[in-house]
Amino acid sequence: MNKFIHSFRMRIIYLFIKSLLIAAFITFSIYKLLQLYYRKNVYYGDTYMYYRQLMRQIGDVYVFMVIYIPLAIIIFYLLTRTYTKYFKEISEGIRHLADGDFSYKTQISSNDEFQYIAKDINEASTRLKQAIESQALSQSSKETLIANLAHDLRTPLTSVIGYLNLLQNQLNLTPAQIEEYTKIAYNKSQYLEELIETLFDISKLDLSLTLNTTEQTTINIQQLLLQLINEMYPLIDERDAKIEESIEPNLFTMGNGKELARVFENLLSNALRYGDLTEPIQIIAKKTSKTIEIRLSNHGRPISEDDLPHLFDMFYTVDQSRSLQKKQTGLGLYIAKTIVEKHHGSIHVWNGEQRIHFEVTLPLDLRNI
């Protein structure tokens, strides 16, 4: 709740309302001062009385709205100037990241999403520097990673800066236009944050091809999946989706809980975004003699047989069978595959029974059976 209160959207709404209230106070004060002046100093027949009668004919409300609206826009512009500096600082950080300068640190002093974006950029720089120094990334994949994501990062950032410039420089905007442009800028900044988080995840995962033994713990897959469904309930409810789950108890494996949660969060998010939600999403988890099999299935248009072998490749997207409001990065399933393989498991996908099936196989920890 505290994070929501201090979010960028709430901050902009707060500044928008604050600008309206300040403008209203100033306009009302001008009105009362003029009213007091006319009562004490203007008499019938004076020149100023003519202007007063003209104002009455036009209407006091309309006259003072001419003062109120531009004043509100100017005040909103002054109150949001700080965010323009934030976007410029983020842009500078991304430019250094794209140029391979990992020593530059993005400095933003705020308690909203911008602080997290700056932290993610700095973390991404640190992780990429470590990956390059340890030669965990090959030269070709490193260049492809930076080039593709740097391009994707700049696109939403350009849109955000453009709309903020409109808010700052166009003094004839109506309150409705201000609210619309603010909403668009917020949505673009959310996508920007997602891309930065993806960059951070991909760089972190490529640091090593094997699990770090210090991060391995016993993981109960049943609890992990049920907790994930619980945490994603707002998104499930928003999409009016239904989950049918059949998860056996005592599904223990060894590994990194946060990384495995990322795998199943990615698969469930894909099902919620791309699937036909008129039918339930099925989550089935069971154990065999030596493995745990977790299958997530959703209704939807079958994936082309040409696309299936490449679905887990870096930067690969299935454009012809997906209709998205946001641009795809083609990294989500690659990250999922990397995590699963680091846990000595496998992941594959197939079409069947009017459903798309993703199945993750992990080694069973026999010590906890």
TrEMBL record:
- Keyword Ion transport recorded: no
User: Where in or outside the cell?
Assistant: Cell membrane
Q: Which top-level group of life is the source organism from?
A: Bacteria
Its Enzyme Commission number(s) read 2.7.13.3
- Residues that span the membrane, as ranges: 12-34, 61-79
Q: What range(s) does the Histidine kinase domain occupy?
A: 148-366
What is this enzyme's catalytic activity, as reactions?
Answer: ATP + protein L-histidine = ADP + protein N-phospho-L-histidine
| Occurrences of domain HAMP (ranges) | 81-133
Q: Which SMART domains does this UniProt record tie to the protein?
A: HAMP, HATPase_c, HisKA
- What are the record keywords, sorted? ATP-binding, Cell membrane, Kinase, Membrane, Nucleotide-binding, Phosphoprotein, Transferase, Transmembrane, Transmembrane helix, Two-component regulatory system
Coiled-coil features, chain-numbered ranges: none
Under the GO molecular function aspect, what terms does this record hold? kinase activity
UniProt KW Cell membrane keyword:
yes
**What is the membrane topology noted in the UniProt record heading this document?**
Multi-pass membrane protein
The record, for InterPro entries, names: HAMP_dom, HATPase_C_sf, HATPase_dom, His_kinase_dom, HisK_dim/P_dom, HisK_dim/P_sf, HssS/ArlS-like, Sig_transdc_His_kin-like_C
Q: What is this protein called?
A: histidine kinase
Q: Which organism is it from?
A: Psychrobacillus faecigallinarum
